[in-house]
Amino acid sequence: MLDLVPILAGTLAAGTPLIFAGLGELVTERTGVINLGVEGMMLIGAVAGFACAAETGMGAGAGLLAGAAAGMGAALLFAILALSLAANQAACGLALTIFGVGLSAFIGQHYVSYSLPGLKPWDIPLLSDIPFLGKVLFHQDFVVYLSIIAFGIVWWVLAKTRLGLLLKAVGESPEAAHAIGYPVLAIRYGATLFGGAMAGIGGAYLSTVYTPLWVENMVAGRGWIAIALVVFATWKPARLMLGAYLFGGVTILQFQAQALGINLPVQLLAALPYAATIVVLVVISRDRKVLQMNLPASLGKSFLP
């Protein structure tokens, strides 16, 4: 049981950037907008967060805010093209990813030799003293706790509030929402910017906390995994959180396999998290009725009043 503590604790940390990016994309897609630029927004957030933390010396907290602002700026660029100008959403998202990869590499070349102190885990009084579970759940950095709070807020808004109902209504039928007087473009803009901010926080967490150093293309496909998790979750926050931790657990297990001396190529072990995600998506995709029941009807379709 003691050997499971670092594995489970590491699973929560490894799944945290996916929770942020996935929740942001889920809210965006709920309004009928599909943004395939999550990878690019995470990279822009990662380099902006690292640069802010390194230059100002204000630590990971400032880096996360800078990452959120940078991700929101990238999402605004996407929104202008895809929403105001009604360009193809898939093409705009792919272009944003390519732009993010190049921009982050250009800015980040000055920070290759830098490292940051990161964040120390927070021990929640009394709860962290619980045997086994205390070290797993209540001995984490504050961003892990923040991701759980973000999940709770997104779930509550979508399931229990008028705003959540409005977001889903816009995703199902923007024409009907516009006909009764709701500002469809403004709502989609807000959801898209929220998705960009969440993706930026996820990227900044990678560069300032999880691995507090800058490496080119350090997001390593997590943006694409976040998009896939939205489909895996059938646009439901709870299932998305479960999928993020599943990916995080497989990521941690690859390092444990190396430590245990399992004789497998390093490249194969590194591919295990992505292979597991593909297998899960294939299994989920076989049930087309569930996908069709939860898929926003206007997903990917442009709307101009």
UniProtKB/TrEMBL annotation:
The record's subcellular locations are: Cell inner membrane
Regions crossing the membrane: 6-24, 36-56, 62-83, 90-112, 142-159, 180-206, 218-235, 242-260, 266-284
Residues folding into a coiled coil are none
Principal subcellular localization: membrane
From which domain of life does this come? Bacteria
Q: Which InterPro entries match?
A: ABC_transp_permease
The record, for CDD domains, names:
TM_PBP1_transp_TpRbsC_like
Instruction: Please report a single Pfam family linked to this protein.
Output: BPD_transp_2
Example of a GO cellular component annotation carried by this entry? plasma membrane
- Keyword tags: Cell membrane, Membrane, Transmembrane, Transmembrane helix
The way it spans or sits in the membrane comes to: Multi-pass membrane protein
**GO MF annotations in UniProt:** transmembrane transporter activity
Query: Know the name of this protein?
Result: ABC transporter permease
Q: Which organism is it from?
A: Aquirhabdus parva
